[in-house]
């Protein structure tokens, strides 16, 4: 297929996806915009991005704190793959937003048009000065929006506004408790009712006595229906296609013996450059990009596994515990806020980005200790990944090879914004449970368990 | 991947398997290489004087470790230098390391007594032990005379002070929760949770059943076969085998400040049972006698014999006995953290982040009794601050996954274990993410008690990452290059 046609098909597919999503929208969405950079303007662009990153919430160019529906945002500069089909450097903007991605684009065009111009001035095809209107900017951003193949949301339906509000609630209750003369309070129920009384008597907190906005019953029914349909589809594929899948698996097993495994280590200077911007908040942004193993088999495999991952992430692992399946003895990870997998350059490269709690060392330890199997399934399609056995074994369990592999593929975030830098995913979930516990009746044991959260 | 039946104890430096408890006098000499040509023969001779694990010394002992800077000054080939671990090569004072280790503000390396950017770069660390001060001083003088004649200079001598009953300066018994390594146990006692040897010694399977990254050299770089073959089976020679990494931190302890704060907190909490020692025990997780709060929650019970024999999950999941953020619960969480708290899986996880502690105390005690009650009698007895604290030394095969992880992910992390603004109350940094982190939560019913505005009690005064080589590796490092003179590497070049 010629490049032009392929591009056209991608736009059509993207359009259909957007249309379908608007009928049954997810409460949180991933926005990814990828724009080609004019080489001569790259130095200026880097400077603008550095200025933004000096103070992501309140810088004069693009003050991210104006967006109440925004969770995390980042700008990445991605070098083109070095082979004949040249793509130059591209600028990637990513945001995790409440509401639809297109709504957020509209919001950006309205609120930070001037800042967008300053950044995107360096991008090829961005409307020239005299043609810059809301519509032309919006059209440019929409035209360069790309899909992610899989998207993980720690807790579907929890908005940035809710997270900020419940943080305020938590802090208010902490001060209240610290100032409270608790000498005469004996039972947990008694204390709980004093707390509820305080909240209801405080106009700034009384919102907390209502439940957070949750997806509607109808939405949830459609979601369940979607899951059931996908399960049925999966069942059919297994039932009719198992011989093909078996052959597929055996062929892949064969490839595992011959696929190249990187044995070199990343340069220490490079690692220290990456570390230089890490650990400035309770969570960190991670970004890594790598080549998908060449050939039809691996690319199809990557596509298929990402599709399966997407279904699982959306319908199963949507309550804060990624990949935890107690009945199978699989331990989940509760430190990831958002993650996404995005295929680039006609599926030749895969970009993985996430926002996780703690240091990279602890993140890697979580990968190795808890979800190595899941990582192996997807990333073993990447060139140089530590050798796996039967797609799930070994791979990331080879601690040093895996850490080196990540170091070889990690890239810097030129800009990173977090609206709640002092909170971990566990804190956020705890805050929500505190709010929920303000409602309804509780016996002594329940009230005691609730008070433990404070 | 079996471990050989008998370890080559005569290849392993003695400090790995013993803390020289029978040699109470100790000091650490920080050295700089001035003239390599003259230093090399002396150092090579010194390898014969080093104490190895095969022999339990009863008079004196010497162990030797080297910094990355020291390796470059020994003019080790660049290709070999690059095989050492990233943490060891980067050192302790990069901007990122300062951030994660808490060495900012008052702890900043610019103010360190040694190991920082404003002091002479350390090349070698000589750890000297003696049965008494006289023996130690004789040993040190002898070493010092020898070294100054041979192109080496002493940058500093760090003295230590043996305190009775393994106490540290705040008045608590220390050195209890050490990892159990079956291969070092001469009596072969049964132990439920041995930590794999590879966690503390390079060249053996680690907690993942694999070999930790270590320096391997090409056979051509070791033409005299000074080193042993790579136990993993490659044709390379193993410079790391039977060696390990040593982390050194000089930590000043503010004893009157600590007990003033405890007294103040006891008054502020306004609780009938709140007394300073009780609150301090909550911070530490142990009573002054060393008995853990999990073992004896309401009062100190010195009679508990095995103070290391407890777990958290079943007996104290909520932290009602030992608070969730207490010092010993976060630096050695046993079975209290995911995955599956209470399970062997959780213990195995915790065991991949263990440190073999070998440090010693320095400075005169606040009160010779080391009894907190006596401290509290007169907290203002000292007119000027007295330098005292801990020369924290620990051994680990993977500095990133062990020491740095414990210090950052567990000790300094204010969000540890579901908490919000609680760093390790003893050693944790009081600032993170641009915010003050000064709380400590004591879980109790019906609601927690929160200590506010905890000042820092510990200050970093020096530190560095070292390599503690095997006997073979020492010989290799101190031997002239095999192929005649090599081009001199840039001095102090750190990649």
Instruction: Specify the helix fraction band of chain B.
Output: 10-25%
Total domains of chain B, how many? 2
What portion of the residues of chain A fall into strands of 2 or more residues? 5-15%
Which structural class fits the helix and strand makeup of chain A? alpha+beta
* Most extensive chain interface and residues per partner: A-B, 52 and 46 residues
Main pleated-sheet profile of chain B: 5 strands, antiparallel
In total, the number of domains of chain A comes to: 3
The gyration radius over C-alpha positions of chain B equals 23 Å
Uncertain residue ranges of chain A? none
| Tally of strands of chain A | 10
Q: What profile does the largest beta sheet of chain A have?
A: 4 strands, antiparallel
Q: How many strand units of chain B?
A: 16
Write a short abstract of this structure.
The complex is a heterodimer of chains A (454) and B (495). Chain A is of the alpha+beta class.
Description:
The complex is a heterodimer of chains A (454) and B (495). Chain A is an alpha+beta fold and 454 residues long. Chain A folds into 3 domains: 3-147, Alpha-Beta Plaits, CATH 3.30.70.100; 160-211 and 424-451, no CATH class; 217-417, no CATH class. Chain A is built from 15 helices and 10 strands. In chain A, strands 1-3-2-10 form a 4-stranded antiparallel sheet. A 4-stranded antiparallel sheet of chain A has the order 4-6-7-5. In chain A, β8 (388-389) and β9 (393-394) form a beta hairpin. In chain A, α6 (160-179) packs across α14 (425-436). Chain B is built from 15 helices and 16 strands. Mean pLDDT of chain B is 93; it is low at 487-495. The chains are: A alpha+beta (454), B alpha+beta (495). Chains A and B meet through α6, α7, α9, α11 and α14 of A and α5, α6 and α14 of B.
